[in-house]
Amino acid sequence: MKIGVIGGGQLGRMLALAGTPLGMNFAFLDPAPDACAAALGEHLLADYGDQEHLRLLANDVDLVTFEFESVPAETVAFLSQFVPVYPSAEALRIARDRWFEKSMFKDLGIPTPAFADIQSQADLDAAVASIGLPAVLKTRTLGYDGKGQKVLRTPEDVSDTFAELGSVPCLLEGFVPFTGEVSLITVRARDGETRFYPLVHNTHDSGILRLSIASTDHPLQALAEDYAGRVLKQLDYVGVLAFEFFEVDGGLKANEIAPRVHNSGHWTTEGAECSQFENHLRAVAGLPLGSTAKVGESAMLNFIGEVPAVDQVIAVEDCHLHHYGKAFKAGRKVGHATVRSKDRATLDRQVKRVEALIKN
Fold first, then answer.
1. Domains (ranges, CATH) in the chain?
2. Known binding positions for ATP
3. How far apart are CA 102 and CA 15, in angstroms?
4. Which is the most buried residue in 12, 20, 56, 324, by most CB within 10 A?
């Protein structure tokens, strides 16, 4: 089976690493000449809206998926005329737009922070008066890793902020006094079978994920699965979907979904019976889903800007290095490490050893 992937970054690369043992081949469509996934398959060098190259891709593969939500939903809709594409264009359309996403949560009875659609500075002023400060203004599409957003703490922060973010449609969200950030990695097959990985505790710095630790018997696991299940059913979703939550007052409030394999699920490669990457491919290819059970205690640490010396990373007991083959650049995810242990105390010591190697 040959899989087409829209996007050729590290997520596409890790999909190919998971699919190759299953006898799958890959082709990536990406406008970057140095797309890091290209080493693991064919590389169609083209923009995501290039219909000529999209047709070439569709004619050469059995099905198509995508590795990130910056892909236009129109691209997926166009491809769907010629070849199966999972997840669907409708799922992508909703997941990539924060207003559509939050509105869906509200319709499904899933708690969220207060939010408002912002189309102008006047809209922003009115929303701030209603929701209050602090709050965060985010572009409705394309923002990630802290980009495309601004925290508003004082009235002075509000002035001219709509223009500062490019005068594009935005979403204002009220702050919530959360006690933790968690994410749930889910996978849904073509026939509707659904499986869930354990909730993951996440630590961010400047909007970028730094550390994820898979939980054991999290008290909110069932609630997270309930909320995620509503979304998966609503979207008739196929593939892996990540759902990020805030822990608030003993419950959960929805932050956002990602219609793809997710950074906070990287631990599953060594820490679960079947990784998120393999399970995504199983789902979209119509194959039986794999077990999402944990294998011991697991954590993932991102390497931002540069990867520490390889010999030092792999010297840490049961530490697994994933180098993306990308040029080092400040603020860029260029690799990660997963660590695994039989008990949490040992895992915490391993995490600290890896953290000591990270310069930024």
1. 2-85 (3.40.50.20), 114-174 (3.30.1490.20), 180-355 (3.30.470.20)
2. 98, 138, 143-149, 173-176, 181, 204, 255-256
3. 28
4. 12
